[in-house]
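Q: Entry one of two.
A:
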Amino acid sequence: MGVGLEASGAVPQHARRLRQPAYGEYAEQPEVEAQHERPDQESPADRFARRAQWPALFVLSLLEVAWLGSLAYVIHRFVLGPIFG
């Protein structure tokens, strides 16, 4: 179906529109999904990032807990202590 046929009106209106996914329907992209299914083309940096993702998040969460604990101690010791002390 060429551009000339579409412009001339020989093609019905509903055939000109691309099919859009319905509300809540997953838009399939097979060429993109096929790229992610090939581990032989995965670079060493991608492999490292994939393996280091969860340990890095765990370390970041531990640092966050330690920082918040230190902040709570400082507030309790130097702010609330003199007020309620």
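Q: Entry two of two.
A:
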Amino acid sequence: MKAALLSLALLGGQSIMTASDRMPTLNVDALCKARSADDKLMKLPEVRSVADCVHDETDAKQALSSKAWADAEKSIRDRCAREIAELGTRSYLDLLICIQMPQGLKSQAPDTSTSGKKRKAN
């Protein structure tokens, strides 16, 4: 319980923009420090160092800002920005996955444009 409250205290002051035209601005240092503090409070082994967490979040932010955010549909950007704000995860990695998931589902969908149709021989 203390860990959850600490996370909320550290992350709760961040502002999340819900306007889908601009990518949300997140405090990566606070996020990574809060995750590390949560692990310590719960006496869990540290899975990733704060520096590794910051590096991963920075890479995800770069991927979002370079192409993924602009290429995503407005409805997807709105939903993802809203979800990270509501769930309190406030992570660029979570945001990137949320943005990429619908695109991955589209690419895995079977091509039904010719299914059930037979070609006529000339």
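A: Comment on entry two: The longest helix spans residues 50-71. The mean pLDDT is 76.
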